[in-house]
Design brief:
Elements (H helix, E strand, L loop, with lengths): L32 E6 L7 E6 L2 E4 H6 L5 H9 L6 H5 L2 H15 L6 H5 L2 E3 L3 E4 L7 E4 L3 H11 L15 E3 L5 E3 L2 E4 L2 E4 L8 E4 L3 E2 L2 E7 L18 E8 L2 E2 H7 L13 E3 L4 E2 L7 E2 L17 H6 L1 E2 L2 E7 L1 H6 L4 E7 L7 H9 L10 E3 L14 H4 L7 E2 L5 E2 L7 E8 L7 E11 L4
Parallel strand pairs: 6-22, 8-16, 9-26
Antiparallel strand pairs: 1-2, 1-5, 2-3, 3-4, 6-7, 10-11, 12-15, 13-14, 13-22, 14-16, 14-17, 18-19, 20-21, 20-25, 23-24, 25-26
Helix pairs in contact: 2-4
Length: 438
């Protein structure tokens, strides 16, 4: 497991002054990886590290001779328009490059003048999906979300019998995943209106967001070789924020017997930066299962996983309507929860995904499923917040919402804080809904 080391030292400061600003997502203790280029240019996309309000261009720093040894080899792999080759190198290489970047960006480091020439302001950059995502699997790992949604459909028996025994998931659509800033048209499809005898076709009327954590696979596994839960951490490169948009009315009509299809494949939005598991080491927590619930089957259980298998990531959802933008008002916060509430943790998801010999590959993405907490204010979707569309949310400007409307922008944020350690943030995951294509 990743352990606390010199890169987590809370007293570390960077010569990039914005990295030490209160509330900064990208302190020197973080150093997440992403893919970028300068906006409005034809530059090639390449790997970078977020530091304060800047990006360290890893290709420029490598060409300037700022890295050596294994860190130099890792940086060379980041010159590509995706990070897949770097992800495939494994935890030793990931850690070596992150350590080298940390030492180069600290106060008092040598070659600051050279490295200043390798910085690009984030406001002058545009981002791409950090990896070529070959496959995308979405799970259903929050028992609070599963229970809330289940109560809308089955008030007397909200959880299906398998939920507490097996991590539920389905194979999603990788091609429609977009990076933060994504704008997509409202989906269209079939729905079954109440009391109707035949389905209707048209724009989705119950468009929703889903607050999720995305899990990037680093090192893959060969076909037929499962990843034991004790080795799962070495196969996870890092985490991002994920909005798995959902057309609830289409989903209700199509999901039986094979699950989501058109209700989910039209768009998913991810944050541009991948926060490594190493950066998150100070925020690991015990993973627990209440004694009255079924305990995990052997392949989903391990002492080390129980000791540090949970990650306390604070998660928020904000909504910015077209009227808010026109009036110059800021977005409204809809909910706040913690990833620590998740019923199944990320290592169990990896172990379960591969237990039948399924081969994961570098850059594959796993979604945690909607993350909700035990109270109504911690719901990770409008389906829950509006009680299935029966109770409209009143926004600060007087508008109301039961589901997402055209022109709405949904903003997700995540961060970790612990006494004695620097704040680690994920940046924003922002997506906007446009009117349906005629």
């Amino acid at each position: 497991m990743n352990t606390i080391n010199e890169t987590h030292e809370p007293a570390l400061k960077s010569w990039v002054e914005s990295a030490s600003a209160p509330g900064s997502d990208f302190s020197i203790q973080n150093l997440p990886f992403g893919v970028f280029r300068r906006s409005a240019t034809h530059e090639a996309f390449r790997g970078g590290v977020a530091i304060g309000d800047q990006i360290l261009d890893l290709t420029a720093a490598h060409r300037a001779g700022m890295f050596s040894g294994e860190a130099a080899a890792a940086a060379a792999h980041c010159a590509a328009p995706t990070l897949n080759a770097f992800m495939a190198m494994g935890p030793t290489a990931w850690s070596a490059l992150r350590l080298a970047a940390s030492r180069a960006l600290r106060e008092g480091a040598l070659h600051q003048d050279t490295l200043r020439g390798c910085l690009v302001p984030q406001v002058q950059a545009e981002y791409a999906i950090p990896a070529q995502i070959g496959d995308y699997t979405d799970f259903y790992a929050s028992v609070y979300h599963a229970t809330s949604v289940g109560k809308l459909l089955r008030p007397d028996n909200p959880l299906l019998p398998n939920y507490k025994w097996i991590p539920i998931g389905y194979h999603g659509r990788a091609s429609s995943i977009g990076v933060s800033g994504q704008t997509f048209p409202r989906p269209v499809g079939q729905t079954m209106p109440p009391g109707a005898e035949r389905p209707a076709f048209g724009p989705c009327q119950r468009l929703d967001y889903e607050l999720e954590v995305g899990i990037y696979v680093g090192v893959g596994n060969e076909l037929g070789r499962r990843v034991p839960i004790g080795e799962a951490e070495g196969h996870v490169f890092g985490l991002c924020l994920l909005n798995d948009w959902s057309a609830r009315d289409m989903q209700a009509w199509e999901y039986q017997p094979l699950g989501p299809f058109l209700a989910k494949n039209f768009a998913s939005t991810i944050s541009p930066w991948i926060v490594t598991l190493e950066a998150l080491a100070p925020f690991r927590a015990p993973w627990t299962r209440v004694a009255s619930d079924p305990q995990p089957i052997e392949y989903l259980d391990a002492l080390e996983m129980r000791a540090r298998g949970a990650i306390d990531i604070q998660l928020e959802v904000w909504l910015e309507t077209r009227a808010m933008r026109q009036d110059g008002r800021g977005p409204a916060r809809l909910s706040h929860t913690s990833f620590g509430h998740s019923y199944w943790n990320i290592f169990q998801l990896v172990a379960h995904h591969t237990v039948n010999g399924c081969n994961l590959q570098p850059g594959d993405l796993l979604g945690s499923g909607t993350q909700s907490g035990p109270t109504p204010a911690e719901a990770g979707s409008l389906l829950e917040l509006s009680r299935g569309g029966k109770q409209a949310l009143e926004l600060p400007n007087g508008e109301t919402r039961t589901f997402v409307e055209d022109g709405d922008t949904v903003i997700m944020r995540g961060w970790c804080e612990n006494p004695g350690y620097a704040r680690i943030g994920f940046g924003e995951c922002r997506g906007t809904v446009a009117p349906p294509v005629p």
